[in-house]
Amino acid sequence: MDISVLKEGSAEDLTERKQVGQKENGINQLGDGKSFAGPALLACSEGTLPSSPSDSVHTLIPSHIKVLAMMGDSLTVESTQHSGHLTSIDEHSGTRMPGSLPDIFKLFNPDLVGYSPSNGRHDSSFDQSALRAKADELPGQAQKLVASLKSSTLINFQKDWKLITVYLGIADLCAYCTNQKHDSPENVTLRIKEALDILQREVPRALVNLVEMPDINILHPLADRDTELRDWCQCLVKRESADMSVDYQKLLEELVYSGVYDRSNDFTVILQPFLRNMEIPLTANGKPNLSCFTHDGFHFTAKGQALLAGILWNNMLQPNDDRKEAFECTTTSPQLHCPYDQRPYLYTYKNRSYRNSLKVEAEMASRMDSGSVVTCTERDASNAVPVSVHQLRPADIKVIGAVGDSVTSANGAGSKPNNLLDVLTQYRGLSWSIGGDANVTTVTTLTNVLREFNPSLVGHSTGTGRQDTPQSFLNQAVAGATAAELLVQVQKLVKLMKNDSRINFQEDWKIITLFIGGNDLCKFCQNPDEYSPDNFVNGIQQALDVLHSEVPRAFVNLVTVLHILPLRELFADTRVKCPRFFLKLICECVIDPQDNSTQLEKLRLLNRKYQERTRMLVESGRYDTKEDFTVVIQPFLENIEIPRDKDGLPDRTYFSPDCFHFSLKGHSQAARGLWKNLLEPVGRKTADQTFDVRIPISCPSKEQPYLRTYRNSNYTYPNNSELLTSEAPMTFEISPVPSDKVFGSKLLCKDKSPSISIPKSVHSLRPADVKVIGAVGDSLTAGNGIGSKPNDVLGVLTQYRGLSFSIGGDETLRSSTTLPNILREFNPSLTGFSTGKGNLESPGTFLNQAFPGALAVELPGQVRRLVDIMKNHSKIDFQKDWKIINLFIGGNDICNYCTDSAYFSAVNFARRIEEALDILLEEVPRAFVNLIEVLQLIPLRRLYEDTQLRCPRALVRMLCYCMVEPAENSPELQMMTEANTAYQRSTQKLVESGKYDAREDFTVVLQPFLRHVEIPILENGRPDISFFAPDCFHLNRKFHTQMSRALWNNMLQPVGKKSSFQDVTANISLSCPSQDQPFLRTSKNSNYIHPGSDPTIKPPKNWGSDLSCSETEPSETVPTSVHKLRPADIKVIAAMGDSLSVGFGAKAKYLFQLQTQYQGVAWSIGGDQSLEVVTTLPNILKKFNPNIHGFSTGTGKKNSKFNVAIPGSKANDMPKQAQTLIQLLKDSSEINFQQDWKVITLFIGGNDLCDYCMAKEKYSADNYVKHIEEALDILHKQVPRAFINIMQLYETIGIRRIKSNKIGCAVKQKTICPCILNPRENSPELHEIARINRDYQTKLSALIYSGKYNTDDEFTVVLQPYFTNTIIPLNKTGQPDLSFFSVDCFHCSERGHAEMAIGLWNNMLEPIGHKQNYNNFTHDRTKLKCPSSEAPYLFTWRNSVAEPAPTTGGVSRGEGRVWFVVLITVGAVTLGQHWS
Q: Which pLDDT tens digit goes with each residue over 941-988?
């Protein structure tokens, strides 16, 4: 047969088609210059399969394909739209083959719509490929392709089957060595995934070929040739790509083999790796033969394209990767295959076993390792439903269930490598013993194996989620569970089975798997008695007894606890990349002991005793007293060893990113091991299963078709009757843990009665009138760690909501002091309090809407949820019931303050609380709100600093880095202390504004009992950690008890006389309402007048400031270095810029005054009157040197002096202004140009941004910085003794918020700054201007910090950043405060200029690296800073305090924040706690 004819084609068909083809197509030019006449046409018979289109991509034959499309790298320098479609392979061979993939498919479906004109019916927009396309371009290509497909009139988008080929070239590989972060394998794969996700989401009926990128190493021989390759593929030239291709290939395999693109029946992605092993042939003289390649050494000629199409076609019909063809540039074409009756379909991963089951590849990537092939022939159920568990076939099983811990909940099973955070996710659908995602060919689980025998099996879990989610179904395992907690799981499992309509509880056979013990072993050293072998087996026994007594027709797998010691190898072998700190934290008792130590031997013996006692329990015969029930020990994990890779190292691929839980690969092996055990006779079951090699799927035999039990295995149990009774108890009582007396309180109040009638005023509210209690906040309100046992650090993740000081309702006041328990002494019908343990989704949470880690910015969301619950709950009469709502937040904000002092500023903190309180004020009737002042965190440093305490210092450092990291007496610590105090003051000001006393039935009362807190100290002088949770950061039950008492007492103390000191060691007794004051105290019933509402306080007469500094003297001699420049040394001041620097409209009251330049009040250069009346930089400097020269006064240009700013100026005007200023300085008779020290302030950029959209290139960030650089270069070169302030540009988007009905605002605003004010919200134009704004800031910072202007002692440029994160000032109603703006609502008023001057001056006295980068618009005459004796100079790069060196073994701030999250995540997995 002619090699160009497809297998099974006939000669007659070929001749007829050849004639037609020659007539249609003519001559084709090859890329290597050879010409070939006419095409060869191909003939195939597809058998007798129906011709109607398939509904499944897995039963797709070539003739079903109606549309061909292409994207990615075009792999050719010629467009597919112009190249011929049929190609000869060799000039002398006389053989021809199809030149493109559409050519081949057109032979099966003449109505095919392709992407090339030569294919007849076509749409060129179906080819979105581009030369040397990178992964960055793929999502855009995908979106354009989708749009083209949807809009095409040639196809039916919904019904036509589409073949889309995505070619991945080497452009990303070639870029890797120049930008390793951007072009890393992970990032490239993510972009590919983004494109595939678009196709999956948008395109119905599609098969996608993902043609894998080649190995870049094959191109190394070409790097030295004179080709374009050297110019565009630097990684080849640098020889830095040894293992790059492998990394990219592995991640692509993981992506495709994950099964994420096999979730629907009409879409799939197939990886085509035939370019991976591509070779460039050599000519006779040993040089590379480039006949298939263009002159750049990689892209294909028409000949190469033809070969590419043929190999791709063949691979689309191949069912096995080990038979995939590789690309080879030869003089003979590949033999093209035909579909055939036994293999008619285009290959997918799901139809691989059509007709004949195929061997699953042993070396598939990790996700493909999860699939299995079941070849069993004995799959039938029993002829009649069996009545004996000893005659139970796999197909008889109708229900599957499971209980256990995080191994069964499958934490991290589907996590990507190194994604430690994702270990928190419970991939229950992948769980070895009960998961039901996909099918056994892709995901091996016991469920999926059993579904090969009975597809109607129910009970399995799918997807992700906790045990209480619907998709968990009968997977009731709880992450972090111990044996003692199995009973609750089993009881819930039984209840679910009894109540589900899909299950016939009495008749259906059930298989239930129980696996527990890992957490018991990991905690043993903390409490040997609690986790003793006796208690361990008792927990299992209680669970099994319930199953035995209540569940008919059940086969129970009791999987013995695994051999846990090998886990230490993952920790010990430093060549294995595992998170060792977290391994140790998760399983301290296993990881901590030294090799050959007594502790390690104890652990080994304990592990064995757990296994032995479990076996003894079952072998007692206790659970073989009924014909329809049995428990079978499945021991395959008893002697398991760590699987190893080919290098002999522990193989991490079997584990999730925490190196503790199983990965999908590990779960698959566990499922196979369990299935194997199920079919092995009792007494001969595998107990030392190796995971290194894929475990084959065993099959029942004709002789033994049953699941094996002791009876059908002819096994006799040893006589253990003297150790374990065979009588199964029916019920169990769980005794409550007795409460410590210290937690309870006595309330000796005589009068606990409510008001005679329900009060209408909050100021007449008695404790007994309160019917509802709620709370919002963070982990202190959620109750993290309150009840944790000593040294159980991970116990801090548990939220003991029932013990929370402000909202917990566990027990009674006699044994547990909380605010609800106190209030229940007055009103036993109080509702809303939280009980027990759990997260936000737990039923006992009720109106405790706090969650761990919460920031103030998340408070409004909590409040909205709280209000919604109160409005809709049947126990609450929302309109009539009086409510107490407790709000306590701020610890996490303070702990993050040093990471972004603008975002976490006291101003923002108060505004976020204000937003939450505003919601309550607007929506909640009859409410008394306790605003609990943020506690003082500084004292907690003592716990961190005392190295003798058993505190997890690394953890504390991660929890609150900003607080514990600064050294004593450092500026950083001072900053944090001031921030903490500022938080407290900001909430005080908020409440004292009187804003929340506008309604008679609503108030907010500040409760300040935590304002001053002292750490309890023992007699030996060390902190008493008995008041703290094991993390030495959260507060335990003792502390919460004292907080409850202090809060209650605060509520009864009059406003203005409340206690602000908390001594947690004091014997605090509970106060009582008095006869003359029986009410909860408010400002009104305390006769307290808020300063904010005092009518005697008048608005300020001016915007001046007060400054009295001790360090006001100049240097003893005129300094010669700018780095030793004191404020008093300054003799000259100047300014450059635009309208803001000339005081444009600063004092205007009317629109006609807007054009006036009020130069004398201009922030950086004005010198009108004195500082006490006008706050400007010159007036501040006059306090140090009254004879300073250069400031402007009055109005107009005539009094501008050294102010060369001009309204409307842009960055390109700065060089000219610099020249003008220099000339003015030189010409002035009032100064000594050479000797006098000068401060020059430059602020520019607003007008550039305002006009950006009209001339983007002209006003680009690069040009903006270029012009500023030119101006600075002029100053640097010509001006001696100069300190240059360059102001960072503000965030201009904020001005969009400024609205007013004034005519000036309405008329002027949008004409002043059209590019910022005119775009609609969330428009691309607005996003672009925000991005350019950031680019201006970033590139200006890069220029100044480059060091270019720090080359001599007489000149420096300092970036003053207080405008970087601009916060538009708001008034009490939350609207922009127009008093800061002129009549046009754009330029600054005199008040705004004063604030700018304060920000600039304070920046000048702050060291570089510690400058405030936000503006604080609050009126305070004392905000100006003073130089100190330790730092008397204006700060420059040289005299700024260096960043503190990190401590040995420490992590950076950023790392600390990240690892804190990781720590909490991993810990939460173990304990089974979710943070909301």
A: 888 888 888 788 777 877 888 888 898 888 888 889 999 999 999 999
User: 1357: which residues sit within 8 A by CB, 6+ positions away?
Assistant: 1272, 1276, 1284, 1286, 1344, 1349, 1350
Nearest partner of 520 among 489, 476, 481, 490, judged by Cα:
481
Tell me if residue 661 is catalytic: yes
- Comparing C-alpha atoms, which of 468, 462, 459 is closest to residue 504? 459
- For 525-540, the DSSP string reads GG-TTTT-HHHHHHHH
- Of the candidates 245, 291, 406, 1139, the residue annotated as catalytic is 406
- Phi and psi dihedrals of 1166, rounded to 5? -75, 145
Which has the closest alpha carbon to 1348: 1415, 1287, 1265, 1421? 1265
CB 162 within 8 A of CB 66: yes
- Most confidently modeled of 250-264, 1258-1272, 1415-1429, 1446-1460? 1258-1272
Q: What is the DSSP secondary structure assignment for residue 1351, as one 8-state letter?
A: S
Please state the φ and ψ torsions of residue 1423, each to the nearest 5 degrees.
Answer: -80, -15
Distance CA 344, CA 1007 (A): 77
Cβ atoms 1098, 1259 nearer than 8 A: no
Length of the chain: 1476
Angle of CA points 724, 727, 733, to nearest 5°:
95
Q: Which of 295-309, 928-942, 1364-1378, 1416-1430 has the lowest mean pLDDT?
A: 1364-1378
> Quick count: other Cβ atoms within 10 Å of Cβ 575?
8
286-296 burial: b if 16+ Cβ within 10 Å, else e: eebebbbbbeb
Please give the Cα distance from 343 to 355 (Å, whole number). 8
Token pair 């590849």 is found at 361
pLDDT in tens, 724-735: 333 333 332 322
> Quick check: is 422 catalytic?
no
Q: What's the per-residue H, E or C state across 357-382?
A: CCCCCCCCCCCHHHCCCCCCCCCCCC
CA distance linking residue 531 with residue 262, whole number of Å: 44
What end-to-end distance do the CA atoms of the chain give, in Å?
Answer: 68
Residue type, 1054: P
Is the pLDDT score of 1440 beyond 50?
yes
CB-based contact 1160:1195 (threshold 8 Å): yes
Residue ranges of alpha helices (H) inside 432-532 are 446-451, 486-499, 518-523
Q: Of the residues 160, 215, 369, 520, which is catalytic?
A: 520
> Is 413 within 8 Å of 462 (Cβ atoms)?
no
Burial of 529 (0-12, 13-18, 19+ CB in 10 A): exposed
Asked whether the beta carbons of 963 and 895 are under 8 A apart, the reply is yes
Name the active-site residue from 661, 1034, 1267, 1387: 661
Q: What is the pLDDT of residue 672?
A: 95
> String of b and e for 993-1032 (b: at least 16 CB within 10 Å)?
eebbbeeebbbbbbbbbbbebebbeeeeeebbbebbbbbb
DSSP calls for 911-965: HHHHHHHHHHHHH-SSEEEEEEPPP--GGGHHHHH-TTS---HHHHHHHTHHHHS
**Cα–Cα distance for residue pair 539/52, rounded to 1 Å:** 60
Select from 1060, 1160, 1029, 1065 the least CA-distant residue to 1103: 1160
Q: Which amino acid is at 27?
A: I
Strand partners, 555: 511, 630
Helix axes 185-202, 244-257, angle to 10 degrees: 30
Q: Give the integer Cα–Cα distance in Å for 1072 and 766.
A: 11
The CA distance from 461 to 1453, in Å, is 40
What's the pTM? 0.40
What is the spatial distance between Cα 969 and Cα 1068, in angstroms, rounded to a whole number? 34
Strand, coil or helix: 487? helix
